[in-house]
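Can't attach files on this board, so I'm pasting raw text. These are the components:
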Amino acid sequence: MCKECGCGETNGNTRLQFFVKGYTEENAKEVEKALLGLPGVLFVHIHAHDGETVVDYAPAKTKLMDIIGVFSARGLEAAL
Amino acid sequence: MAEIQVMKNILGENDRIAAENQAMFAAKGVYVVNLMGSPGAGKTSVLEKTMEKLKDELKMAVIEGDLFTSKDADRIERHGVPVIQINTAGGCHLDAPMVQKVAKQMDLDNLDLLIVENVGNLVCPAEFAVGEDDKAVVLSITEGDDKPLKYPLIFKESAIALLNKVDILPYCNFDMESAKEDITTLHPGMKVLEVSCTTEQGIDAWCAWLKEKVAGKKNG
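---
Top answer:
Structure tokens for the assembled complex are below.
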């Protein structure tokens, strides 16, 4: 996003790092898509092998529980 | 401890001027679309086809954003449509103050449709409103079907996506269904059109969408 090139601001976005247990190659892709489909989520990066998951989102548009819900709906355990 | 104070919220200031622009265009019943996409996506080609199809039906003008040159504005001018060039001098996007400055020089009373062609960039332009009614994104299939998920903001912000250069689809590894699914995952209900400026596929549908928007603006 624009803040990456320095020409804008963060727009109130927050970047969180989760550690998620239970990823497979398939459900990691599914989670990436589902997270990007949430309002205000602008960046998702998942390392399926160790569970590291970075999510850049606007707390004003999406609640943390909505993000957690994406993991739990797929039987995945996520810790901050 | 060093402390840095934010003296001015640049995006806040931009949003304020964008709202002024929007009110100025609304008062004149001008529908404004902010056309965005990467360099080479085909924004100017789509614009040229749009002018060919609509310039006799609608009173149109173009604001052309470019880094340094007037190459795109020269292409537009050949179609006999009023065009004003904004050179950002290296800036990666147009912003509301730039558009306000040139819009004040335009004959808005004599206009139905204003197309703002933003600087070629799939990232920054999506963050800066310029006073438009809608944003539109042009993605050419040569850029790859992974771009929607890699650059989600521009797809979340846009009302319509034009997947351009579909005439060369058989020669590219572009999964059309996957790209469309990703786009509508990011922005449910978003209109997605397959277009080609070479064969004119989808151009009528794009023009019909614009005409509907213009009519909607005129009717308040």
